[in-house]
Amino acid sequence: QVQLVESGGGLVQPGGSLKLSCAASGFTFSRYAMAWYRQRPGKERELVATISSSGGITNYADSVKGRFTISRDNAKNTVNLQMNSLKPEDTAAYYCKAGPFGVFTYWGQGTQVTVSS
User: Fold this and answer.
1) How far is residue 104's CA from residue 98's CA, in Å, rounded to a whole number?
2) What is the rounded distance in angstroms from the CA atom of residue 64 to the CA atom of residue 70?
3) pLDDT for position 19
């Protein structure tokens, strides 16, 4: 079955950096685009970044452009999100997404990022 497991979240000061990882299994990882989303308390889940199956095409939300970098390693079935120059408004639960696979979209359990002084 499809599984996505995020890791790397934690507490960081404004201006700091953090790297998130998503380990994928249960599907042919290299054939699918992947994405990172985030959700702040009381807010809708929002798209942060996407990456094509080969890793050659990436897109970012305006709010993180220039600060975050999405990457993937198809040999290791992982997707990463390098977050630099973090701001308090980046505080959120971050989720890895795969799909859609037919009618299904798969999500990881999320990892919490808290940016605070």
Assistant:
1) 9
2) 11
3) 98
Q: For residue 88, give the 3-state DSSP assignment.
A: helix
Which one, of 35, 15, 23, lies nearest residue 90 by Cα?
15
Strand (E) positions, the chain? 3-7, 10-12, 18-25, 34-39, 46-51, 58-60, 68-73, 78-83, 92-101, 104-107, 111-115
Cα atoms found within 13 Å of the Cα of residue 109, Cβ hemisphere only: 7
pLDDT digits (tens, 9 = 90+) for 54-92: 999 999 999 999 999 999 999 999 999 999 999 999 999
Q: What token pair was written down for 116?
A: 């605070």
Owner of token pair 């452009």: 65
Contact 87, 18 (CB under 8 A): no
Neighbouring residues of 21: CB distance < 8 A, sequence distance ≥ 6: 6, 7, 8, 78, 79, 80, 81
How does strand 46-51 pair with strand 3-7? unpaired
The closest of 112, 115, 117 to 38, measured between CA atoms, is 112
